[in-house]
Request: fold
Amino acid sequence: MGDTGNREARLEARGLVRRFPGGAGIHGTDLDVAAGEIHALVGLNGAGKTTLLRSLLGMLRLDAGRVRLLGHDLAEAPPEAWAGVGQLVEQPFAYRELDVLASLAAAARLRGVRRGDVPAVVARGVAALGLDGLEHRRVGQLSLGNRQRLGLAAALQHRPRLVVLDEPSNALDPAGVLLLRAELLALAADGAGVLVSSHHLDEVARVADRITVVNAGRVVGELDPAGADLERAFFARVHADDLERSRT
Reply:
């Protein structure tokens, strides 16, 4: 972790709006992720974190706003730009009928890895997320935690320049959390921009350069990763926003 003030932007979002019936969605959100930065999003369930991540990746159509991904407007990003993205939002990438190695190989090819480079990339994914000994296990036979490890390996094994992960530590045991933490720090040290949503404040504080608070579909402030009692600061920020919105 370190100073990201003068680093190239890996992701830029301005004025993002996506409305759902009943008022849910995201409302005028701005966000940046710099090269070499781990930027964490935190918020209560239903705050809009997943909607925001899906919108940033083009998985949801925006009502308004603009996203630039690795220097390209989202709608015009070429295949080589998307090949530089690693994402895990909602369901891990995996084919239940394939084994771990075949599933990782498919993920590598879909992300533009040359055929001759696939074995080395897959080996890196297996080692980084602790999948040793499971290489020939069918995905459908994996535990929930190992399926999450596989999804993370598929997202990260090709050393993406932009990483977007939604609650990546879900279902992981402590050893898996440590492996994930090490991999994210290594990717950021290599210049990747990392955007990760989580409700585990203590965990993201260990790796994040910035922590942004999301509430009711809007960015409502930031927390200092090195600050004391992050949980109290987080709930105070959310409560203050709830009070402000109740008065309007």
In short: The domain at 30-77+160-248 is CATH 3.40.50.300 (Rossmann fold). The mean pLDDT is 94. The first helix runs from residue 49 to 56.
